Amino acid sequence: MQKKVNPLVKMALEFGPVLAFFVGYLVVRDDVFVIGGRAYDGFIVVTAAFIPLMLVCTGILWRLSGHLSRMQLMTAILVVVFGGLSVWLNDERFFKVKPTIIYLFFAGVLGLGLLRGQSWLQYVMEGMMPLQPQGWMILTRRLMLFFVGLALANEVIWRTMSTDVWVNFKTFGLPVAMFLFFMAQSRLMDSHGIKEEKE
């Protein structure tokens, strides 16, 4: 049974590890650590610390709420897989490609639903945004394209720019882009929203 969690606690558990990664990276980005006779730069060390922190916070959130969304589970799995590969192979590229995989996966899931004439986004977010069926289809199509755009942006940034730029993009750029996307859907909400009847 899903339980209500204080919104501030939920936000801290979801975004705390990302902010901790950002702060940790700023502190040790220029350092090199020799562990077991092998040299690791600051990015890899922070990634190694981020993985258990992310899992602990996800576990606490599950304990408090009794529920984890598919997005949270998928994110945790990919953090372990790609973060683990980066640490094991001492190669930061695996961790940097993780957002690309996540956003392409979500775009693919939404696209598959659209091909079946369904908005699978509606099943996840219906309680938060009451929309007419046509509105859900439009929003799903837009969000699918948005996820593809985020995946492409991540690829361009980590392949052509510095690690500093990518860390800033991942920490601040992606959440801000998501916030702006949903803010930009206000006209869709007005035209396709389900308004409660008032006596």
Automatic annotation (TrEMBL):
Keyword tags: Cell inner membrane, Cell membrane, Membrane, Transmembrane, Transmembrane helix
Role played: Plays a role in cell envelope biogenesis, maintenance of cell envelope integrity and membrane homeostasis.
Organism from which the protein derives: Halodurantibacterium flavum
Family under the similarity heading: Belongs to the YciB family.
Pfam families: IspA
Membrane-spanning segments: 12-28, 40-61, 73-89, 101-121, 142-159, 165-184
Keyword Cell inner membrane: yes
Record-given protein name: Inner membrane-spanning protein YciB
Entries under HAMAP family matching the protein: YciB
Primary gene name: yciB
Domain of life: Bacteria
Entry's localization field: Cell inner membrane
Membrane topology note: Multi-pass membrane protein
